[in-house]
Amino acid sequence: MPLKDKHAFASIRRLGRGLRRGDYTSLELTEFFLDRLERLGPRYNAVATVTGTLARREARRADTELAVGRDLGPLHGIPYGAKDLLATRGIPTSWGAAPMKDRVIDADATVIVKLREAGAVLAAKLAMVEIAGGLGYKQSDASFTGAGLNPWDTGRWSGGSSSGPGSAVGAGLVPFAIGSETWGSIMNPAGFCGITGVRPTYGRVSRHGAMALSWTMDKLGPMGRTADDCGLVLTAISGHDPADATSVDKTLEWSQPPRLKSKSKSKSKSKSKSKSKTGTGTVTKIAVIADCDKHVQKAVRKNFRKSLEKLEKFCQIGEVSLPDLPYEDVAGTLISCDMAAAFEGLLTSGDIWQMTAPEDRWGAHAAMMIPARDYINAMRIRPKIQSALDQLFEGVDALVAPTLSTVAYPNDQSFSEYRRGHHSSRIGAAGNAAGIPGITVPNGFGEDKMPTGLHLVGRAWSETTLLGIAAEYQHRTDWHEEHPDV
Question: Is 336 a catalytic residue?
Answer without folding.
Answer: no
